TrEMBL record:
Pfam hit, one: INTS4_C
Organism expressing this protein natively: Anopheles coluzzii (African malaria mosquito)
Predominant cellular place of this UniProt entry's protein: nucleus
Domain Integrator complex subunit 4/Protein SIEL C-terminal Ig-like: 805-929
Keywords of the record: Nucleus
Localization terms from the record: Nucleus
Keyword RNA-binding among UniProt keywords: no
A single cellular component GO annotation: integrator complex
Record domain INTS4 8 helical bundle: where: 613-795
Protein name, UniProt field: Integrator complex subunit 4
One annotated GO biological process: snRNA processing
Lineage of the organism: Eukaryota, Metazoa, Ecdysozoa, Arthropoda, Hexapoda
Keyword Nucleus: yes
Length: 933
């Protein structure tokens, strides 16, 4: 299929056939016609007037049922909408039952959000109906409907003002529900300029409403205005603080959000402390108010307060450190020196005679609470959150402590002991949060020996995620002394003996420990290698995981401190060469053996130049495309930086080759490969282009859509020619892909479709009844005379979704280590895989594919909790995921052990799975049941 890319102005001037470009108005009409024809062919297009006419003689109950049927089927002829709306309005005016009127208004909102009805007409009709309405229930529903209709399109300023004026009128309604929805409408639609003048103050008055729902909605609407760009003044702060003690949780929640928002927006604003002349910064006072909310009776409020603390990073240090101390520091009041107090006492002229008890007491008793610059609830607030009975509060407190520590190194050092204590929490999620938080702030801290003992005691946790998190944390942190490093190494090696499946995680931990402590590693090198200064020690087993861990740490330390190489015995140097070849990702290149040059793949291989100078296909087109495809596959293996782009171009060339062969078959020529097999391969490559690649530009997306359109057209032509199966499904698929391509061109007007796409879309638009035979006759000449597909422009940002199976390996369940189980029972095989560039929307499509020797294939859906993002020292990885689950194998009796293939794939369509990696083979042997005597 001929593909088009976005070209420069100079290239556009050289286009040979500008007449083949589909005009935008044609594309818009084409999309409408294809969609309508597809609805007619599937039988889903119905008449809304046929339902509405039934309302004339129906009772209230029958009318409600009819309206429910209209809501269930939302595919109507758009030309009937004006008459249907008019009749619905007439029925609304004569309907005595309020529930039916509510349903009619709700139907207006559904039509606005799910169809192409005119929203401005609906706004006019709804407001006219509500002006004479008396039922508070119906008016409340009408305000909700106005909000939904307004969000379904972009109304003009006149309609916005019309809705805002109507909402202001309804603010004076005696119904609290009407007031609440009117305030909601104002917060969403009032103009920013009007809100700063009067609307914000008008909404603020309802924070004193007698109804808690109205008070909460008033704060929520003001926050919505703030998100829309309205400047929230500091004068709202006292009103929000007063609502923090409200009896209702919903009000306290919104008031707490308002206090946080004002503190972040106006941090340097000075306000007076209650019952005192002292002034503090607004962010400091707001921080104290949020800290006080951690003692709230509601768990939700405590959780919210703990979450909000992490965003108040501009708070003063004294207030911040007070959250870790439960004793108030000197009541946070101003102290005078002894000399100042003596001078003031002497100036007063009052001396104690000693004859009267307490006659020297101060004249004015000062209450500590009255002069406190910080609310008492701020004292130890984070400690209170860490000790809360609910895990949500503890988790939020740990996250906030981490965010605050990242901005304040001194606070990071102070909070270290508290985070270490959370390693002993009974909930795994809290322990993981504490471990990841300590990893994030590792650059600000140095661990002591007493802290290490608590951390290392958690290494024997039953949870593999906790152990891997601790490995990550130990590799990110620095220790203070030689004894600390020895303690870390010994404990890690001891735990490795207990959990040998943590081998790779332990290797990564020791690699980072060596990189961060080269000097300390040098001091304990003879001790770790058991190297005697006078006698030769026995050569150790290089396959021993503990010994490998030690070597990985020392080799990585030697990379930063080359003087360590002189301390290595001869056997260690030999082991270096072996480990460098077997695990290059853990062992760095050292100046050993005279070869010190390291091959830098990125930027030195000319990968980008190769991609950009891919040959334009001349007469020997297929041979060159095949050679380029092989070169691109090899490039993807040797240069990770361009692997996504190389794979995308290789798959594109492969689809192009299949398409040219099938085009020969469509013209009546014979081809070597079976047509059905070629069609399956072409469809698979198109699915790969659609689902496995990310970071595509709109030009790349157009190329993929045009390739899929050509493939679907070829599919229909060849199936009709074959006459062995029904062509209805391929015809519907072609219509669907054409509809998608035309709407994409409509949304991206600068893009230009190629001649093939323009011709196909134009022909489909002219087909009145899209039956397979009619569509086949129309598109056959276009498919047979289609020009070759152009080569896509190179986009080096393309990423490909792929997987790597870590466990099981080919050696873990080899012929010597067979999985034996009684036939009919289940064997659970641990499965661990890492996935790269998996999109968030593709998580639910992930599958495990198990293929048995008898060609039976089982598709397994992994649990959602088994797939998690990979944690790094910088936090959660954006593109890397880890799947940790168990694959269940079961079969009948086999005479001997055979291999079972396990792989990971994406289920993009029913019975269409795209494999993300090569399958791993495990030996499986179901044995017959042993009969007892």
């Amino acid at each position: 299929m001929a593909l088009a890319v976005k070209r420069s102005i100079s290239e556009i001037n050289t286009l040979p056939e500008p007449a083949t470009i589909v005009p935008q108005i044609t594309t818009h009409r084409l999309y409408k016609r294809i969609r309508r024809n597809a609805c007619k062919s599937s039988g889903t297009l119905t008449s809304i007037l046929s339902y509405v006419n039934m309302l004339e003689d129906a009772s209230s109950n029958d009318a409600l049922q009819i309206l429910l049927k209209i809501t269930d089927s939302m595919h109507f002829d758009e030309s009937e909408f004006p008459d249907a709306i008019r009749k619905l309005v007439e029925h609304f005016q004569r309907e005595p039952e309020s529930a039916v009127r509510v349903k009619i208004l709700s139907l207006f909102a559904d039509l606005a959000t799910e169809t192409g009805i005119d929203g401005q007409q609906l706004i006019d009709e709804v407001i006219k109906l509500l002006k004479v309405e008396q039922s508070a229930k119906v008016i409340s529903q009408g305000l909700i409907v106005l909000e939904k209709i307004g969000k379904s399109f972009t109304p003009s300023v006149a309609y916005i003002n019309q809705m805002v004026f109507f909402a202001k009128v309804k603010l004076f309604s005696p119904s609290h529900n009407v007031q609440r929805h009117a305030i909601l409408l104002l917060g969403v639609f009032v103009l920013v300029s009007d809100a700063e003048k009067e609307s914000l103050e008008l909404i603020g008055k309802y924070t004193d409403s007698p109804d808690a729902r109205v008070r909460a909605q008033a704060f929520r609407s003001m926050l919505t205005l703030g998100e829309r760009g309205v400047q929230l003044p500091p004068s709202l702060y006292p009103r929000a603080c007063a609502s923090l003690t409200d009896d209702y949780e919903c009000v306290r929640r919104e008031a707490l959000n308002m206090v946080f928002e004002l503190g972040v927006r106006h941090p340097e604003e000075m306000i007076k402390v209650q019952d005192s002349e002292q002034e503090v910064r607004l962010i400091d006072d707001a921080f104290g108010k949020v800290c006080s909310a951690i003692c709230d009776l509601s768990m939700n409020i405590r959780t919210l307060a703990a979450e909000l603390l992490g965003g108040m990073t501009m708070v003063s240090d004294e207030f911040l450190h007070q959250t870790l101390d439960k004793k108030l520091m000197s009541n946070m009041r101003k102290k005078r020196s002894l000399h100042e107090r003596s001078a003031a006492h002497f100036a007063s002229g009052e001396w104690s005679s000693g004859k009267k008890w307490a006659d020297d007491a101060p004249k004015e008793v000062i209450s500590a609470d009255s002069v406190s610059l910080m609310a008492s609830g701020a004292c130890g607030a984070l400690v209170q959150g860490l000790e809360d009975e609910f895990l949500e509060v503890r988790t939020a407190s740990v996250n906030s402590m981490c965010k605050l520590a990242l901005k304040n190194p001194l606070f990071a050092v102070t909070s270290l002991d508290f985070l270490v204590d959370m390693f002993n929490d009974e909930i795994e999620e809290v322990r993981l949060r504490a471990i990841y938080s300590l990893t994030a702030i590792s650059r600000h801290i140095i661990l002591r020996e007493d802290q290490l003992e608590t951390m290392l005691s958690s290494l024997e946790d039953y949870s593999v995620e906790v152990r891997e998190g601790l490995h990550l944390m130990l590799g990110a942190c620095k220790v203070s002394t030689k004894a600390c490093l020895t303690l870390v190494v010994q404990k890690v090696l001891d735990v490795l003996l207990k959990y040998p499946e943590d081998r790779l995680s332990t290797f990564g931990c020791m690699q980072r420990v060596g990189q961060k402590h080269p000097e300390i590693c040098m001091s304990i090198t003879p001790q770790l290698l058991l190297d005697h200064p006078f006698f030769d020690s026995a050569e150790r087993d290089v396959e021993d995981p503990a010994y490998v861990c030690v070597l990985i740490m020392l080799f990585n330390a030697a990379q930063h401190l080359p003087a360590m190489l002189s301390l290595f015995p001869e056997t260690t140097i030999k082991h270096y060469a072996y480990l460098r070849d077997t695990m290059p990702n853990f062992v760095p290149r050292l100046a050993v053996g005279g070869d010190t040059k390291e091959l830098n793949l990125i930027g030195s291989t000319g990968s980008r130049q190769f991609l950009e100078t891919a040959p334009t296909p001349p007469q020997a087109r297929q041979a060159l495309l095949k050679a380029a495809q092989d070169d691109l596959d090899r490039l993807a293996e040797i240069d990770p930086a361009f692997s996504g782009t190389a794979n995308f171009t290789s798959v594109f060339f492969g689809a192009q080759l299949q398409m040219e062969q099938l085009q020969l078959a469509a013209t009546g020529h014979s081809i070597k490969a079976p047509i059905k097999e070629c069609l399956l391969q072409l469809i698979k490559k198109c699915l790969m282009l659609q689902n496995l690649f990310s970071n595509l530009t709109i030009d790349d997306q157009l190329l993929v859509k045009q390739m899929c359109l050509r493939a679907s057209a070829l599919n229909l032509v060849l199936i009709v020619k074959d006459r062995s199966q029904s062509a209805l499904g391929p015809c519907q698929l072609l219509l669907h892909i054409a509809s998608d391509a035309s709407s994409f061109l409509q949304e991206n007007t600068p893009l230009i479709a190629d001649t093939f796409t323009s011709a196909i879309l134009t022909k489909l638009a002219s087909v009145g009844d899209p039956k397979p035979g009619r569509v086949y006759r129309e598109i056959l000449p276009i498919v047979q005379t289609a020009a070759p597909v152009v080569i896509p422009q190179i986009n080096t940002n393309i990423k490909m979704c792929k997987a790597r199976i870590i466990e099981p390996t080919e050696n873990s369940y080899s012929a010597e280590n067979v999985i034996k189980v009684t036939a009919g029972l289940i064997a659970a095989v641990p499965f661990v895989a890492e996935l790269e560039n998996l999109q968030q929307s593709q998580r639910q499509d992930l599958r495990l594919k198990v293929k048995y020797p008898d060609q039976n294939v089982h598709i397994i859906v992994p649990r959602k909790r088994d797939l998690k993002k990979v944690m790094t020292e910088q936090g959660e990885s954006e593109s890397q995921w880890r799947l940790r689950t168990k694959v269940l194998l079961s079969h009948g009796v086999w005479t001997e052990a055979s291999t079972v293939e396990i792989t990971i794939c994406l289920s993009v369509k029913p019975n269409n799975e795209l494999e993300l990696c090569k399958p791993v083979k495990v030996h499986f042997a179901p044995k017959p049941v042993k009969r007892g005597l």
